[in-house]
């Protein structure tokens, strides 16, 4: 069990730890998961808010770190972009209720299986331009609301085939093109390991643009220590670079969820 009892977990560094309530303690109701994570000292991340009792989530008193920032829509075609913007505005209202600072986006809408609603194995120059224009408008929405939208990299080899703008290199290019503090990266290192690798150098390159970092191990998308990624080296790099944001676990528990959280916390605790 974690030693935390509701206060922030001490990682020995300046970054904070969060856990997605979608992927741990799955035998509990969603509200029970949120309450459990909050008691243990973690910030909490959620996905599709339309399937949640938002008032009940507020009543838990949990600190919410990130939530999905749209319901439907896409980045790279005009009709999809208008739908994305419309549902992003709806999401901002929920983020205000939850006092959630970050709202997450993908290159296109995803269905219940994580597959793209609009498949794009090739991204054209026009798609790049449309995506950059859409994200500029998204950042303007975030600025007016005092929130930050994050653009998440995904992998197309295992989990999300056919998603455009999936690689970390793609999301970095789009965030740099928009150049707004209200559009940042959700740098998912699980996806990056599958798609690109070289994670410490990627962190060094991307960190000035990062709004949040998400982690899970490869293969299997479970907690750190179950696969090939040496997350203590990533933690050391984040500490060396002075990262002050959130590291969020978005990976399934390989077995006992309390043990999974302990492994996550241990991987990102800096020994002095």
In short:
By secondary structure, the protein is α/β, with parallel strands linked by helices.
If you had to describe this structure to a student in words, what would you say it looks like?
By secondary structure, the protein is of the alpha/beta class. The protein is 39% helix and 14% strand. The chain has nine helices and eight strands. It has helices spanning 30-39, 54-59, 78-98, 125-145, 168-178, 189-195, 199-206, 231-240, 257-267; strands at residues 16-20, 43-45, 64-68, 102-105, 148-152, 183-188, 210-215, 246-249. It has an eight-stranded parallel β-barrel with strand order 1-2-3-4-5-6-7-8, surrounded by six helices. β5 (148-152), α5 and β6 (183-188) form a beta-alpha-beta unit. α3 packs parallel to α4 (125-145). The longest helix has 21 residues, at 78-98. The radius of gyration is 17 Å and the shape is globular. 48% of the residues are buried. The model is unreliable at 1-5 (pLDDT under 50).
Task: Please tell me the overall pLDDT.
Answer: 94
Strand order of the largest sheet: 1-2-3-4-5-6-7-8
Q: State the total count of DSSP E strands.
A: 8
**Main sheet properties:** 8 strands, parallel, barrel
What are the low-pLDDT stretches, counting only 5+ consecutive residues below 50? 1-5
Output the radius of gyration.
17 Å
The DSSP helix count reads: 9
Distance N to C terminus:
22 Å
